[in-house]
Amino acid sequence: MEQYILLTIFGILIGTVGTLIGAGGGFILVPVLLLFYPELSPEVITAISIAVVALNATSGTLAYAKSGRIDYKAGITFAVYTIPGSILGVLTVKYIPQQLFNTIFGALLILLSLYLFYKNKKSIITPEPVIKKGYKINTLTDKKGITYKYSYNQTYGKIISVIVGYISPLLGIGGGIIHVPAMVNWLKFPVHIATATSHFILAIMATVSVIVHIINGTYNSEDIVLMILFLAVGVIPGAQIGAKLSHKIKSNIIIQALAVCLIIVGIRIFIKSF
Question: pTM for this structure?
Answer without folding.
Answer: 0.78
